[in-house]
């Protein structure tokens, strides 16, 4: 068994791409070596790591060579391979020539279909060190980067220029070469500044020791832990604590090979600025960790992560403080200047900002949002005063987009609107709704804190969804430039999150459609509503995939229901129905009923049951059970108790089974046939009060 060490050394890999690159290296090496025949049942990836300047992997237990291969080839039938005198025919000679042997060396293979000439070709396995040079070079070209580049006069593409490679098999160099002529060696490089090297290594153990001497911490997780420990220690030293932020930890670990956390401070006067501005400057722009006091308020300190050790850390800290000071000075300026113009007075400035070329300006969007928010507030039975607040919050929600602060810090849109609304004397509920109306911006993002905030958020998202669908901008494939999938999922989460909201989508889309000026939208409200509803069902499947089966959602979608909470109530009832003993029989019966009714003439399907014409006990019994159950089920559906309604209908099982066992539905007698079809239609309509159960999948 052999051990492989491979390192790809390059210029700095963007931190956001590093974790995926490490995972991709491990998966691709495992796949390629597995297909090569060098992978044994004892083979394993010992480790796979990456830093900004390198990707490295160690594989143990590789075969030293491929197994020999034996390929059996079948030639012509013996009866055609030799003539009457027993001499080889051209067919036999041609087959022998292809196999590279003489006719006399061919074997005979007896099969149930007769005897054939055959030849076993044996191919000796190739040594691992011979194969790996090409295999690893191929892997190098297979990396899928979000963005890649070429450098110099070469043709090779990689995320950043490749500067060196280490490739060793049992201590011997594998001559892996790039298309630009770079050839692997046995010397790695250390930290760019503290210990650049080179460092010679003959195996994975020596390689790890060399990197330690070269001041490189190879493991991303080890770097994260070093940063986490250092940040917590320094925050405590400053009299506070650091709030955990896995994303920021991973980003800093992806930016450093030898992370060294350092404590810095800024002028306390900047604490007068909203804390979100300060944390945005620190976290998103400078990659610093904010420090909070034990009361949760920001302290005038931060922790930065250097990528090297220096004799006098204060030199680096002063640099970090100077860069942050410039950012905070800009923020202080905008905070002072923006408050000079009250938020409502900025509404007219939205006339100059285009929301979408066909859909008009942000000012027009604000007016539509106000209309739709008022409608939603009335739909949710809010008091008149709250309806007015909802409309006002929606109208002002986008005004902070024309402030200097949001222009400099786009991440603060909505948040600054809330602050500026309070400064202008607006109702605190309006300010909070403005602050929250972009939420949720992803599946893990928090929902708006108040019902007013949810209303404004829904108005914003549904206006965008309606407008984009009406001008042909529905998402296609992976393209979704307006975030419509995220918007629909956000509406679903807000409706289903326990507030008891019932949102009729078709009516809401119609109101949103009417809010657009005549001639702006290309499709009518009906077709847009149907498309948006279908889109929401698709997002609902994604949202509920952990809890419910897709076929249950399809069964409700077939009814065209557009109240999302009602849809989920029905889906939940179907999930319970699937666990009942009658499920398989009743679903199979409903599928059979659908097929029978589809093939029956229209006039037969439209007939009503004539009780006096029911002569057979099986159809009389079914009629009696149907009239008993259907009314009860209808009453339960009216109060949205779908589980109980299905439980009542499940008692029809024996009557339905007997009906199909003992009767021919398509009886030659017209009156009998129509009566029986009418009974089937009643069954379908009774179940159809809850869902189209014929669309449910039966267990295999």
Brief summary of the model shown:
The chain is an alpha+beta fold and about 700 residues long. The protein contains 26 helices and 15 strands.
Count of distinct strands: 15
Output the CATH class name of the largest domain: Mainly Alpha
Taking strands numbered 1, 2, ... along the chain, how are they ordered across the largest sheet? 2-3-1-7-8
List segments where confidence is low: pLDDT < 50 over at least 5 consecutive residues: none
Mean pLDDT: 93
| Biggest pleated sheet | 5 strands, antiparallel
Tell me the overall shape. Answer: flat
Q: What value does the Rg take, in angstroms?
A: 36 Å
Q: What is the fold-level CATH name, i.e. the topology of the largest domain? A: Hypothetical protein af1432
Number of helices, counting only DSSP H or I runs of 4 residues or more: 26
How many domains? The number is 5
- State the helicity in percent bands: 40-55%
Proper CATH architecture of the largest domain: Orthogonal Bundle
Instruction: Estimate what percentage of residues fall within beta strands.
Output: 5-15%
Structural class by sheet pairing and helices = alpha+beta
- What is the CA–CA distance across the termini? 45 Å
Written description of the protein model:
The protein has 700 residues and is α+β, with helices and mostly antiparallel strands. It has 5 domains: 2-65 and 127-213, Alpha-Beta Plaits (2-Layer Sandwich); 69-123, no CATH class; 220-338, no CATH class; 343-543, Hypothetical protein af1432 (Orthogonal Bundle), CATH 1.10.3210; 570-695, Orthogonal Bundle (Isoleucyl-tRNA Synthetase, Domain 1), CATH 1.10.730. Strands 2-3-1-7-8 form a 5-stranded antiparallel sheet. The protein has a 3-stranded antiparallel sheet with strand order 4-6-5. The two termini are 45 Å apart.
